[in-house]
């Protein structure tokens, strides 16, 4: 049928090729007198037009018989009776005018109008065009001097078709546009009685005003505002408008995103429709996400100028709200995966800031309007957590969300006092299965730390510490070490603890261990801390550093470290006992030559405590004490003590110790007194036996330690 319909208009196209002038105005004639005129006016018509007019009449008769384009009856015609075939009003689609000047831009302009007509076909199907000169509803090709075809008449069908031919002649002289979907070919009239455009026509010219036709190109922000305004009264978005929105977002991403955030910051229904359309195209989302992230990463307000010169500040939470709408669209998965680490960090920033700080008044007012409009939680930090859950689920990491739910991690994340614990828990859950993802997050957190926002430091430090094992320290080791060193000197206990945990991990790497020499003094001070965990981690850092080859203890550090470790031999924690004794043994073997002389006095003081700890209930501590005591005897070149230890003759060790060094007997006894209060019975008994050992008194008299 499409071929037959197109064939009907070959006469019109042929006539256009012969003459480029506009069609002559139609004469007012009655239908019954539709014959070639006999007066002098007939001389004005050429002989070529007569056969063409006869062909046109015959073609048009056949054309009106097609049922798809037969004219409908109006209400008045239906009331008076059934109309004759071919009679009745044509209810045709309202289409935009194509003037002769616009035909000069027949390239892209013609294609654009064809798309517009197809887009609004369904909308304009039921709209009638009202003639400005009479109250009747008429077809688009009707003129003000044509009779009302709804009135019953006895005229022949031929006469009526002749009248229609006259009325349609002006239409066919201009242009005909073929609709490929409906396979109808409709002419667009260009007469002085062209009806005023309908709603669909106005939208067409607002959205897609062609730069060839307009003297000044329409700005992209203005187009976005017009689209948003028009969608306020619509429930759905037609296909062609969706395509144009996506094209606009891909070609002018910043203008589209920023304008939408400004004209609809609370994400009303129309804005949500646009965000969902953007989310349905993965390539478009890939271009939109960087702009959204740029806004989200500048808390609380972001300022960027659009092409129309507007630099009004945009709320960071408005971008988060737009992201949340996009996350509901399944097609955005690929783009979300591409920007997953950056999105996660941006949302984590929002959670931390909105939990640790009271939002400014402008932000609070804005969010009040948002949660009232969308029935969200009244606190923005809970919405940020909701968006983070949506991101993890869209990335198909539901197991992380469920693990945090089981351990009540999400609730801890919303409390300022426990937030860093929750962030550490979240990092552990992610690191177990998503090592590369956590590494990318860590790199971004390092950049965030450069801003030195106090409220960010503790939660972000907790995340970094948990994922340090998966980082490439060659690339970021210096930045991590600098950050840990800074927090090691912090007055905040939690920051010191986290910094020590990070240093424990870093010290296992030989290249990082060699860079920790400047931290020796800070670590020595922490050995005297009352927190056993802080002390044990400090000991771990020293132990890990000394395990690597070619690392020696300097002559200035060795005596200070030895004195600090000697005090830890009597610590309440058996684990600290073990670590301090083991580190003492390592240090003796790695001290520089010029530092050995100052170490002798401290090693002499360590002999009695090490001897008593050889009687510990904890076998690991007892064995470590025996090995360290043997090393101290060798360092002091006490062959007698070394021989007794190898033969495991500990009972004679105390006697030999007192006999060899009678000048320090009083000091040894004073040290032994403190062990009488030990909670371990073997230590108390060993101290009593040591104090009761015979010793050489003044004048060669033999006495006991208790005398």
UniProtKB/TrEMBL annotation:
The region called Disordered is annotated at: 1-107, 131-169
Domain (Maestro/Maestro-like HEAT-repeats) spans 480-692
Repeat found in the keyword field = yes
Keywords linked to the UniProt accession: Repeat
- Pfam families of this UniProt entry? HEAT_Maestro, HEAT_MROH2B_C
Record domain Maestro-like HEAT-repeats: where: 216-289
The name this protein goes by in its record: Maestro heat-like repeat-containing protein family member 6
Q: Give the classification, highest ranks.
A: Eukaryota, Metazoa, Chordata, Craniata, Vertebrata
């Amino acid at each position: 049928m499409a071929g037959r319909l197109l064939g009907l208009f070959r006469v019109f196209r042929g006539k256009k090729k012969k003459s480029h002038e506009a069609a002559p105005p139609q004469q007012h004639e009655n239908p019954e007198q539709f014959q070639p005129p006999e007066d002098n006016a007939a001389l004005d018509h050429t002989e070529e037009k007569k056969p063409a007019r006869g062909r046109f009449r015959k073609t048009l008769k056949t054309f009106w018989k097609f049922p798809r384009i037969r004219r409908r009856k109006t209400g008045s015609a239906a009331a008076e009776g059934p109309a004759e075939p071919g009679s009745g009003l044509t209810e045709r689609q309202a289409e935009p005018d194509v003037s002769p000047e616009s035909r000069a831009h027949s390239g892209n302009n013609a294609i654009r109008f064809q798309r517009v007509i197809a887009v609004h076909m369904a909308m304009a199907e039921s709209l009638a065009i009202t003639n400005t000169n009479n109250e009747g509803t008429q077809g688009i090709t009707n003129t003000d001097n044509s009779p009302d075809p709804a009135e019953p008449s006895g005229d022949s069908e031929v006469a009526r078709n002749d009248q229609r031919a006259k009325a349609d002649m002006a239409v066919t002289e201009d242009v005909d546009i073929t609709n490929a979907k409906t396979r109808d070919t409709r002419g667009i009239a260009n007469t002085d009685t062209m009806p005023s455009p309908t709603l669909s026509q106005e939208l067409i010219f607002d959205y897609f005003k062609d730069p060839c036709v307009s003297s000044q190109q329409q700005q992209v922000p203005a187009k976005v505002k017009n689209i948003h305004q028009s969608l306020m009264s619509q429930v759905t978005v037609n296909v062609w408008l969706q395509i144009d929105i996506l094209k606009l977002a891909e070609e002018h991403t910043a203008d589209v995103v920023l304008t939408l955030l400004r004209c609809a910051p609370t994400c009303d229904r129309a804005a949500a429709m646009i965000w969902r359309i953007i989310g349905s195209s993965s390539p478009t989302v890939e271009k939109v996400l960087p702009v959204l992230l740029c806004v989200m990463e500048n808390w609380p307000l972001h300022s960027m100028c659009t092409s129309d010169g507007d630099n009004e500040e945009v709320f960071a939470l408005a971008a988060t709200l737009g992201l949340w709408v996009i996350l509901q669209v399944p097609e955005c998965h690929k783009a979300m995966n591409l920007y997953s680490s950056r999105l996660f960090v941006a949302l984590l920033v929002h959670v931390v800031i909105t939990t640790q700080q009271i939002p400014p008044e402008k932000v609070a007012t804005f969010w009040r309007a948002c949660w009232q409009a969308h029935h969200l939680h009244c606190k923005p930090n809970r919405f940020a957590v909701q968006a983070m859950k949506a991101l993890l689920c869209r990335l198909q990491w539901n197991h992380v969300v469920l693990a945090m739910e089981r351990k009540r991690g999400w609730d801890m994340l919303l409390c300022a006092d426990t937030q860093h614990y929750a962030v550490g828990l979240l990092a552990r859950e992610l690191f177990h299965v998503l090592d590369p993802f956590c590494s990318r997050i860590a790199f971004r957190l390092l950049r965030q730390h450069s801003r030195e926002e106090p409220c960010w430091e503790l939660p972000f430090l907790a995340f970094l510490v948990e994922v340090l094992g998966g980082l490439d320290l060659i690339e970021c080791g210096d930045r991590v070490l600098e950050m840990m060193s800074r927090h090691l000197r912090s007055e905040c206990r939690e920051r010191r603890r986290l910094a020590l945990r990070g240093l424990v991990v870093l010290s296992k790497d030989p290249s990082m261990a060699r860079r920790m020499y400047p931290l020796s003094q800070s670590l020595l001070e922490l050995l005297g801390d009352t927190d056993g965990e802080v002390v044990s981690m400090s000991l771990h850092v020293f132990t890990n550093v000394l395990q690597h080859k070619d690392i020696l203890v300097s002559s200035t550090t060795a005596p200070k470290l030895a004195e600090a470790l000697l005090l830890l031999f009597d610590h309440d924690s058996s684990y600290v006992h073990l670590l301090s004794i083991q580190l003492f043994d390592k240090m003796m073997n790695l001290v520089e030559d010029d530092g050995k002389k100052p170490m002798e006095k401290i090693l002499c003081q360590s002999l009695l405590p090490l001897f008593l700890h050889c009687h510990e209930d904890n076998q690991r501590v007892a064995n470590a004490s025996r090995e360290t005591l043997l090393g101290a005897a060798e360092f002091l070149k006490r062959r007698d003590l070394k021989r007794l230890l190898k033969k495991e003759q500990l009972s004679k060790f105390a006697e030999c110790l007192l006999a060899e060094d009678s000048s320090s007997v009083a000091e040894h006894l004073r040290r032994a007194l403190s062990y009488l209060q030990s909670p371990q019975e073997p230590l108390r008994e060993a101290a009593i036996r040591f104090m009761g050992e015979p010793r050489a008194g003044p004048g060669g008299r033999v006495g006991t330690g208790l005398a």
